[in-house]
Amino acid sequence: MDKVQDNRAWFLIVPVFLIVAFSAILPLMTVVNYSVQEIFGPGQTFFVGTEWFEKVLADDRLHDALVRQILYSLAVLAIEVPLGILIALGMPGGRSARTSLTLVLLALPLLIPFNVVGTIWQIFGRADIGLGGAALRMLGVSYNYTSNSLDAWVTVLVMDVWHWTSLVALLCYAGLQSIPPAYYQAARIDGASRWAVFRYIQLPKMRGVLIIAVLLRFMDSFMIYTEPFVLTGGGPGNSTTFLSQYLTQMAVGQFDIGTAAAFSIIYFLIVLLFSFVFYTIITNYGAGDRK
């Protein structure tokens, strides 16, 4: 029996299309328009072609910020994803008060606003009034995130791990809870080791949530702004000035709209490229085992 096609169904997606166009496509087209024009004032524009893109790509400060950003995001993924998996594996299963309490405690850091997180760590890391800074000083560790570039960079990284590892753990925990008990029963019958259960049952079943976790944490860490801005203000020097802060300085501080628009497009394409690479790697991981 042939299917009957009713083209009037296309009208049902018109509201969605209008919402997406208003919230995403129109702002993006506006940025593209600004990226090829010199703006002198309202109604006073001059077409400059790819001049702003060439200026941004030749900017050494942008190159430095990009390297810092890539290293930071890779460090975030290298710490938060394995740590989140380990926490999820150690969490109690089933429905119990212990499980509920664990889930609530894990979710607490996620409920704190970004600027509050920066303020907490700004105080916590200070050697004079902060618990963390004072503890390191008592242990004989020379630590000052306000004057040492490495200390500042590590503090921002630890702050991010504290704030967002819970998200990875909760996503992995949801993936583990979706595995049918029959898989574990079969593994016990076969005498599978703990590592074999993780490698051939738990890890493949967590593939979907791991894709979400990696993409969310990469995109968010690659666009981080508020926490390091509150904690270090981008310093000392430019050691914690990431791409988003550099973009804000260009657009708001210098009011260089054309260059900032070109930078925004390049920034967006970099995020898109890395997200595609991570998605491809994770989806193809273990493809040979499934054949």
TrEMBL record:
Keyword entries, A-Z: Membrane, Transmembrane, Transmembrane helix, Transport
SUPFAM superfamilies (alphabetical): MetI-like (SSF161098)
Domain ABC transmembrane type-1: 66-278
GO biological process: transmembrane transport
Membrane-spanning intervals of the chain: 9-32, 70-89, 101-124, 152-176, 208-226, 260-282
Subcellular location: Cell membrane
One GO CC annotation: plasma membrane
This protein's name: ABC transporter permease
